[in-house]
UniProtKB/TrEMBL annotation:
It comes from Engystomops pustulosus. It is found in: Cell membrane. This is CD109 antigen. One of its GO terms (cellular component) is plasma membrane. SUPFAM superfamilies: Alpha-macroglobulin receptor domain, E set domains, Terpenoid cyclases/Protein prenyltransferases.
């Protein structure tokens, strides 16, 4: 054997990249979502394969899918249409390629595209010694013209020890406006005291918030930036220096001198010298610790005092010779009022004291551009060897007879490369060094695009020329409205995104290099050699604390890439104009002809290209096409309104012609809305207005929508000089309060023979249903837990803003994953589910207290909760097989729980139990002990512990007496089943005897009062059935539990969950554990739906899609009478989900009467004033109304729907007991209340106007027992002022013909006759 050596290799399977881009980040209902997928390998060549694409809504329903799509040159494009009423929220796109999953999200919501943008120009730093803090605000429409309006500039300062402070100023703006704040104002803002400042450093970030309010529409847009305020003028910065010392070599460092305000240094300032103090000293090791010798006269090897003049480029280079025994280097620099220093303490490991060092002044290089680096050593070097490592491969290597080699970077080096230089001495010792290069790409595949015009008119014909480098290329082309870009990042394919993805192939370690071996380890290079490759001394590992060094640029590489006749009615306003994949075939240049859409905007053109030989390339700088006409009309619409309300339609006429012009503005009439003007033409309504040159004028039309859905609104503007017309759409929602209802059928054809069954489903809408609001859906899935597995992020309709409620987004995923794992089903969703689990795990840790316990609101609560801590512990323990759970967290929670167990085994609650069921009267300690014990059993090694034995004995002692409460008995039975005690069988038998039977369904019924119309069973009934079902599974009495499973599976809502969080979590745990034992053959079913609707949807369920929830909407009439037919073999769950609105009733306004069965008293008082139309305050009072129970409720949630046109005031709601948390979601405010008793609790909810809506419809306030949602009360309310407020109030003198009242005038012959008579009289006069 010549030599023996070992090394560890890391295998990385990443071999291709996938990019998913959509044409927007936000979509409205009814819009088309365009999707493009690009895949290429590590060398940027197209990765051609088949892939699967799925689109899922926020509830996890599979809405669209494409399977085995062929990627032409690595590119696939598809699109799908959103329905008119899709679930709002975050949707996801999943792409599966070779068993690897890739995700992208987009949001469906109601929004209005911004019509102008606001830019804020501000220095990054401001010094108190240079006078004014100045900034510039630019506001321009998306088509480039100036915005005229009001500018508000606010400075906000917040420090750790002072309250937040702010200063606000107001300005006028016409496209551009400058603003300034004096030093005196800044000192007042930051509470600056000009005393003893010599010894204190003053400074901090100041947030600058600017708001531009457009004069014509009143629309406001914000922009925020920050400036760091300091009390110094200059700062000096060290950069590009080593972080380890190589004695006897020169230590090279650079110093940059700058002004904080970014201005150049003046000639006078340059006359001041930079003072530099260099200190070299020793360090010794003793008693297992490093000790720095005090820098006294006898200990300092060398102290140099240097001075430098400031060169023109403001950069100074130091060359400091290091002594042979130097172990600590300190460099301190001073210039005027600025001081900075660096300390370097590590010494590069070398027994021979021979070193090699790369000196490279340029760490940012570009492909194809030569660069030179210099290698220095304290021994003569005749030749050096080098390696270039990038994306996990050695991409280049060589031998140079020069110590200043020149290299030419290649595309294979991007985006980041390791440069290793080494030399083997005659005695076998390896000298080496490493540096990191950031390599900017220069894609071989070039693409350029150009329009034949820079500016054009709407509806003009234009041509786009595309040039590529080689034939048979694929071009991904997109042309989007600039307004879409202002919405946010849509994860488009850009140079930066590609570079970030390529960086994932890298294996460069971000470690400090202190030995020759670490040089290679830094680049993830394994070395097998018989040469001497020194390692770091073992004691050096201790020396990692208090190292005041700053990494040089080669240790933190960055890539600052650039992401680059009569008037025709304008009715085509696409947010995406062009979204195409273009095959160039044999051409390298092609032209496409298009007609410009009607939008007045700037169109942003982006493109990428990919081909077999040259791979990927991208258009570095987007190309713009300005679509503009000097005279046009623009509409300002809300995102939606409620039927019955009225709002002011703002129409802005822009005149960029050279002269003033009189314009007639006409709003076309429609059956979808009424125009509220005192006189209207039989076919249209008209205003005449004089619009000055280079300005705009606003015209108001009060309208009342009367049809639901999307309604078109057409406006025309005509003058002698020009004309324009536009049509836009408005969404109108139904009035009233939303109700839902679900019915479930179990389709069981399970004798392994083809069969046919037929069942009926019927539903009659209530008489007070809101016409047009009725919707019905059919869902089908071939698995017991399928309805819930498909909707894991929306199982519960209630808000979840506390520690326990957050677990509804964590625990069900754990149980579903357990089920899929135990049944060995393929789980392509596993990566996403695990990702959700990790998010839920991290989110839940927010609610852990310092003592290891968990509570509803974490450290904000006075004590931890044993119940919640046990719940979290159980879920975390089960999640360990899927994600990393910190064992310290588990141990701390367990330790805290065990400190709350009495000697007799009973657990007690130090805090307040927020779950109503666990309060349980006389059985509360028993119920709580059973609950906690069932969680602790999951902890490894605790099953046979004294604590579990004591708890078991305690529960068995309670079983000696009859437990009358089914909830407590079911929990005790479940806990004893887990430890295999005989009392568990007795408890289960007793529960089965107490059960109610309805055909083949078995369940338990409590006497808990529920709100009228609440169709779901009580949450406690769900939990009882769930614990009983799990006891059947544990005791191997699965067949007896079938009837319970059937009842449970029929109680789910249309979100896949139940009423609340606890019943949903426990029920899903029970159903998943049951389903793991209760095997069904894979289905082969055809299900059809027949009835009085014209469409008859059908579904096929087979072994490929049985876990997929299929959903289709059906037509509805006054009643729903449908017949479900199923043919084939297998098992499926079919659900009919109905959603509708119910009209408001006067009884809902009043307080609870003596005869009312509401669980809560609820009273809503509206404080309004005709003098203040922009604010309304709600006074809400509530209390527990169940007189027979003196106990307080568990956690309650007050849900407040705000009046249209209003939002929660910035000052919000005071957080004082019993209010625990306030959150705003869309137009709702959720207020979490710790508990309610029979003492009335009142609070004020201040709201402010956000849009001009008149004749507001009723809104609703609900008070809900969170853990028993059937216990709720609902009241509708309105403002006496706002519900009678005419929209005329908002435009005042601007619409003097506005009609007050809630009925529009209709055109009549009388009006026409009067007008004709008036004209004739005028002629005779």
């Amino acid at each position: 054997m010549i030599f023996f050596n070992t090394t560890t290799l890391e295998f990385k399977s990443k071999s291709f990249s996938v990019f998913i881009e959509t044409n927007s980040i936000f979509y409205k209902p009814g819009q088309e979502v365009k999707i493009r997928i690009l895949s290429f390998s590590a060398d940027l060549k197209p990765y051609t394969s088949t892939l699967d694409i799925q689109v899922m809504d926020p509830r996890g329903n599979l809405i669209e899918q494409w399977q085995e799509e062929i990627a032409e040159l690595g590119v696939v494009s598809n699109a799908f249409q959103l329905s008119d009423n899709p679930p709002l929220g975050d949707w996801s796109i999943k792409v599966k390629l070779h068993q690897q999953l890739h995700y992208q999200t987009f949001t469906v919501t109601h929004y209005v595209l911004p019509k102008f943008e606001v830019l804020l120009s501000l220095p990054t730093h401001h010094t108190m010694k240079t006078g004014l803090l100045e900034g510039t605000v630019t506001a321009r429409y998306t088509y480039g013209m100036k915005v005229r309006g009001k500018l508000t500039v606010s400075l906000h300062y917040n420090s750790f020890h002072l309250k937040k402070n702010n200063i606000t100023k107001h300005f006028e703006i016409n496209g551009v406006s400058k603003f300034s704040f004096t030093d005196l104002e800044l000192k007042k803002l930051m509470r600056y005291e000009d005393k003893n400042r010599e010894s204190l450093t003053f400074g901090g970030p100041v947030d600058v918030v600017v708001m531009v309010t457009e004069d014509l529409t009143g629309i406001s847009l914000n922009e925020t930036s920050s400036v760091y305020v300091v009390d110094k003028e200059y700062f000096i910065e060290f950069y590009n220096y080593p972080t380890v010392l190589k004695p006897t070599l020169n230590f090279t460092a650079y110093l940059k001198i700058q002004r904080y305000d970014g201005k150049d240094l003046t000639t006078e300032e340059r006359r001041n010298k930079v003072s530099v103090t260099v200190t070299q000293s020793k360090m010794f090791f003793t008693d297992g610790m490093f000790n720095v010798i005090s820098e006294g006269e006898n200990d300092i090897e060398l102290q140099q005092f240097l001075t430098y003049l400031v060169p023109k480029n403001n950069e100074i280079k130091f060359e400091i010779p290091l002594y042979a025994d130097t172990a600590h280097l300190k460099i301190k620099a001073e210039f005027l009022d600025s001081v900075n220093s660096i300390d370097v303490d590590d010494v590069f490991a070398s027994t021979s004291k021979m070193y090699l060092h790369i000196e490279n002044t340029n760490h940012n290089v570009k492909v194809g551009v030569p660069f030179t680096f210099e290698v220095k050593s304290n021994i003569p070097l005749e030749a050096i060897k080098y390696l270039i490592v990038s994306r996990g491969d050695i991409v280049y290597f060589g031998l140079e007879n020069s110590t200043s080699p020149t290299l030419i970077p290649q595309n294979s080096w991007t985006p980041e490369a390791c440069l290793i230089v080494y030399h083997v001495m005659n005695n076998g010792t390896i000298l080496s060094d490493v540096t990191t290069l950031t390599v900017h790409p220069n894609f071989e595949n070039k693409i350029s695009v150009s329009w034949n015009k820079v500016q054009t008119n709407p509806f003009d014909k234009v041509s786009l020329t595309i040039n590529v480098t080689e034939p048979n290329s694929m071009v991904g082309l997109s042309v989007l409205d600039k307004s879409v870009m202002l919405l946010g990042d849509r994860q488009e394919i850009t140079t930066k995104r590609v570079s970030d993805e390529l960086r994932d192939y890298n294996t460069i370690n971000t470690m400090r290099v202190t030995s020759p071996q670490q040089v290679f380890e830094r680049c993830n290079i394994g070395v097998l050699t018989d040469a001497i490759l020194e390692k770091e001394d073992e004691f050096d590992l201790f020396y990692v604390t208090d190292v005041k060094t700053y990494p040089r640029s080669d240790f933190l590489p960055t890539w600052n890439s650039v992401d680059f006749g009569g008037s025709r009615i304008r009715s085509y306003f696409p947010e995406t104009w062009i979204w195409e994949n273009i095959e160039t075939r044999r051409q390298t240049s092609l032209q496409i002809d298009k007609v410009v859409p009607d939008t007045i905007t700037t169109w942003i053109t982006k493109a990428f290209v990919i081909s077999e030989n040259l791979g990927f390339g991208i258009l570095e700088t987007p190309v713009k096409l300005e679509s503009f006409q000097p005279f046009f009309v623009s509409l300002s619409l809300p995102s939606y309104v409620t039927r019955g309300e009225q709002f002011v339609l703002k129409i802005v006429v822009f005149n960029y012609l050279e002269e003033d012009t009189e314009v007639s503005v006409t709003l076309d009439q429609s059956d979808a809305f009424e125009i509220h003007l005192s006189f209207i033409h039989p076919n249209r309504s008209q205003h005449t207005v004089l619009v000055p040159s280079q300005e705009g004028k606003t015209v108001f039309f009060p309208i009342k929508p009367i049809q639901l859905g999307e309604i078109p609104i057409t406006v025309k503007a005509t003058s002698f000089l020009a004309s324009d017309a536009v049509t836009e759409k408005l969404i109108v929602k139904a009035e009233g309060i939303e109700h839902s209802f679900s019915q479930t059928l179990l389709l069981e054809l399970i004798n392994n023979k083809p069969q046919m069954i037929s069942k009926s489903l019927n539903f009659t809408f209530p008489p007070d249903v809101v016409s047009g609001s009725e919707k019905a859906f059919i869902t089908v899935v071939g698995d017991i837990i399928g309805p819930s597995a498909a909707k894991l992020h929306s199982l519960v309709q209630l808000p979840y803003g506390c520690g326990e409620q957050n677990m509804v987004r964590f625990a069900p995923i754990v149980f579903i994953m357990e089920y899929l794992t135990n049944t060995r089903q393929p789980n392509e969703h596993a990566p996403q589910l695990i990702s959700y689990m990790k998010e839920g795990y991290q989110r839940e840790l927010i609610y852990q207290r310092e003592d290891g316990s968990f509570s509803a609101f974490g450290n904000d609560d006075p004590a931890g909760s044993t119940w919640l801590s046990a719940f979290v512990l159980r879920c975390f323990l089960k999640a360990r097989q899927f994600i990393l759970v910190d064992p310290v967290i588990l141990h701390d929670t367990l330790t805290w729980l065990l400190t709350h167990q009495k000697k007799n085994g009973e657990f007690w609650e130090p805090g307040r139990i927020i779950n109503t069921q666990l309060q349980g009267g006389n059985y509360s300690p028993v119920t709580l002990t059973a609950y906690i014990m069932s969680a602790l059993i999951e902890y490894p090694g605790l099953l046979n512990s004294s604590q579990i034995t004591a708890a078991t004995n305690y529960l068995e002692s309670q079983m000696n007496e009859v437990i009358s409460d089914n909830y407590t008995l079911s929990l005790v039975t479940y806990a004893l089943s887990l430890v295999g005690r005989n009392k568990a069988k007795e408890g289960l038998d007793l529960l089965n005897r107490r059960a109610e039977q309805n055909g083949d369904l078995r369940f338990w019924k409590s006497n808990i009062q529920r709100a009228p119309g609440w169709w779901q069973p009580s949450s406690v009934d769900i939990e009882v059935a769930s614990y009983v079902l799990m006891s059947h599974v544990i005791q191997n009495r699965v067949s007896e539990g079938v009837a319970v499973m059937k009842w449970l599976s029929q109680q789910r809502n249309h979100f896949g969950g139940f009423s609340s969080t606890q019943d949903t979590v426990v029920a899903l745990q029970a159903m998943s554990s049951f389903a793991s034992k209760y095997s069904n053959s894979k289905p082969a079913l055809h299900v059809s739906v027949e009835g009085n609707q014209t469409n008859s949807p059908s579904f096929r369920i087979n072994s490929e899609n049985y876990m997929m929830l299929q959903s289709k909407q059906i037509e509805v009439g006054k009643d729903i009478n449908i017949t479900i037919r199923a043919e084939g073999a297998g098992f499926a769950i079919l659900q009919l989900h109905i959603i509708y609105n119910v009209r408001n009733s006067e009884s809902q306004r009043a307080r609870r009467s003596a005869a009312s069965k509401d669980s809560f008293d609820l009273d809503v008082t509206v404080k309004d004033n005709i003098e203040t139309l922009n604010s309304v305050t709600l006074n809400v009072c509530t209390r527990n109304a169940e007189i027979e129970s003196n106990a307080p409720t568990g956690m309650a949630v007050l849900q407040v729907d705000l009046l249209s046109g209003f939002s929660l005031a910035p000052d919000g709601i005071n957080l004082k007991y019993p209010i625990k948390k306030v959150e705003t979601v869309d137009d709702k405010v959720n207020i979490y209340i710790d508990s309610l008793n029979q003492t009335e609790f009142c609070l004020n909810i201040p709201t402010t106007r956000s849009s001009n809506v008149g004749y507001t419809q009723d809104a609703f306030v609900s008070i809900i027992d969170y853990y028993e949602p059937g216990r709720r009360s609902v009241r509708n309310y309105n403002s006496e002022v706002m519900k009678t407020l005419s929209p005329c109030s908002f435009c005042k003198d601007e619409c003097d013909t506005c009609l007050d009242g809630n009925h529009a005038s209709q055109p009549s012959n009388g009006h026409c006759f009067c007008l004709l008579l008036f004209i004739l009289c005028a002629l005779f006069l």
